[in-house]
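Margin note: ligand = copper (II) ion.
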Amino acid sequence: MQSNERTEGNLTRRRFIAAGGAGAAGLAIGGWALGRATASSEPTRADLVLRPRPSEVEIGGRRVATWTYDGGLPGPEVRLRQGRPVRIRVDNDLPEPTTVHWHGIRLRENDADGVPGLTQEAIEPGGSYLYEFTPPDAGTFFFHSHAGMQLDRGLYAPLIVEAANETLDYDREAVLVLDDWLDGVRGTPDEQLETLRSEGMAHGMGSPSPAPGEPFGAVGGGRASSGVAMANLALAGGVDAGDVDHPLHLVNGRPPEAPFQVDVRRGERVRLRFVNAAADTIYAVFVEGHELRVTHADGLAVEPVTTDALLMGMAERFDALIEPRGEGGARIIAVPLGKEGRAVANLRLADSRARTPAPDAPVRPPRRLLTHADLTGAEMEEATPRGERRTIDMSLAMDMSEPYLWSIGGQTMEGSDEVQIARDEPVRFVFANRTMMPHPMHLHGHSFRPVRRGEGLAPLKDTILVTPMETVAVDWTADNPGDWALHCHNGYHHEAGMMRHIKVA
Ligand code: C2O
Ligand code: CU
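Resulting structure:
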């Protein structure tokens, strides 16, 4: 069992802990029974069971029909132990096939990666699948459905892998999962995709957000990175950062009117684990009146760096330490780029009489915005070897044969070639973005390092935001044999062609 002193963030959140190792019974917290009897005659033994199913959830007083894992939004937080095998059974109670992907986990067990048609057959309604894997890295991850538009429903949840030896010093932690929401409020994700497919992008987009008072600056103090430039353009309404107008932005399933609360004490060190689980929204995230000391990107350690705000593309994760200060609470705010509204949670100080500002009260925009370009990788593992590597064109484009079709390396998913890579081959993917949309590009089973001019080791990432008309190259070594997906983590782009098969053999 875990040290709950440290992880008490908010006990109303349900949590699955499976630190016991293979075969050991999982531990349930908050009234959750694991491995309870199922309809199937002999369910496979598992440490945890997840049940995706149609559900009604309450979002700030509204009853909303959607699909969830086990009835909650987000689904239950799963905590694993680094290096310990786990068996998670998924019982599909949805009316459609599904799979679960453990995003960012560099698992060696390819058949547990959850990509339908690539690593497994999708789990039919009423069927089950046993995911067995060992998480090699500690860190902040999440899991989500990899079938159709299911991610843009409620089928996502945080996945925390606890370190075999935690070296970061902190008193408390909180997991904050961001999401853009429309399901059951403004149609369904499938209907949105249909609209985009029949009419193209113009009809899927809402009006741009009002610009904040002042633009963001880069953390490095020098030239603003392309990410910062894009954020400023998006905030000024000059660039589309998404295709779909989501009416709500949530933190841990809660809208600004009923914000998620993080209870803290003044002066302690709080580890915030941010996850962007949105389908179509990039956020600028900050805690009012506080600096963020960023310690991890996409789960893995970076050289700690201080900023006011984080730029988070879809599926990116950042860990940051804060020291609560001031009187009263502070708002944790995520501004959706190029969209209206905001996501809000509250940092609530113990023993304080002052109140946290109202969720819709004006915001003083933060000055410094951090992107991957401001990060330096920690020397936790080999630097990517220099020298010869194969360069592969992975340019990002619209395919003009249909109103809404996206391609990678000149091919859309349907009928595309397998990209064949030899085991341990050093490769470079070049993401030349030939569109006016940002694309968060994600590779399964591996991490990569963005190629940098100049000094410093780039951080390891599994998802990288490629801004409009920008080119980002990433280097990686194909050390994990299997069939892996490479795709844009915009759920709508992904479903509309923006994925390729990478075969490492
Ligand atoms: Cu989080 Cu293939 O995705
Ligand atoms: Cu995209």
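The longest helix spans residues 189-199.
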